Amino acid sequence: MIPEPIPPRPTTRNAPDRPDGRAYVVRGDLDLAVDVALATGRPLLLRGDPGSGKSSFAAHVAWLNDWAYHEHVVTSRTQAPDLLWSFDHVLRLADAQAQRLKPIDAYVEPGVLWKAFAPRCARAHTHRARSHRLPRSRGRRPVRTDSTDLCAQSVVLIDEIDKADPELPNGLLVPLGSRRFTLSQTGRDIEPEDDAKALVVITTNEQRELPEAFLRRCLVVKLEHPEPEELVEVARTHVEAYDGPFTDADLLLAQDLADLVQGLRADAERRAHRKPSTAEFLDAFHACRKMGIRVEDSDERWRTLRRMALLKQDNVA
Which of 35, 210, 255, 285 is deepest in the core (most CB within 10 A)? Predict the structure, then answer.
């Protein structure tokens, strides 16, 4: 059987938050953490402030290794089964009213963990569902799958798990540990496939404490704010990945901004304020680079940009 061609990724050249994982500077123990997570089968929990690069790291690992990539952004309404499968109650009710009910598993859609732990099973299930002409649901949970299920190796991003009720991480203890689960609507057991290698990356902004039992089952890495030389390398990587050569003028701009951000972070530490993130440094860098804004107080546009992109406070001189 000839496999279906892999659809190309959508271009993201003009998107401020590019999801393709190409431009990422790996810092600290992240490389080792990936190796340990794969060796132990444990999820990798990334802690840190918003904008520190937690979410984009998962996409980078997938891009670097040419692995499948699955993502689920957690909300306050997310429940543990949503990461395993979803059941379209609305469509089934509509079919029942129209007297055209399909087999019950036709209303089941594989979630990100099912696709990672048992990719062939998830793909076969999806084909069976399509044979019943199951339409795609709209307005459902924010899940993106940017890959083919033919790949037995994958990265799963469970983003911002601290937004959910504590019952969500507790509900994932068994599926993450055994990589098996049972569909409640059909009673079908989903078993892990032996050749399926999955790296599960979970992020938290630490807005809510996670259960101790969940933390014990994860490898935990905290992402600190980059040093100025690391910020410069981040700027270089983004320019070379998406825009072309990193010029001497780009280097000077990145260095000036990195030193400024370092000072702003030190001041925010003293005042117990929010620190400018790496993502906000990049916003300021790209704006200055494309608009010809000088990083000096004599440039009124720079003072406004600093307030809007870095400080994000009103009436800051």
Answer: 285
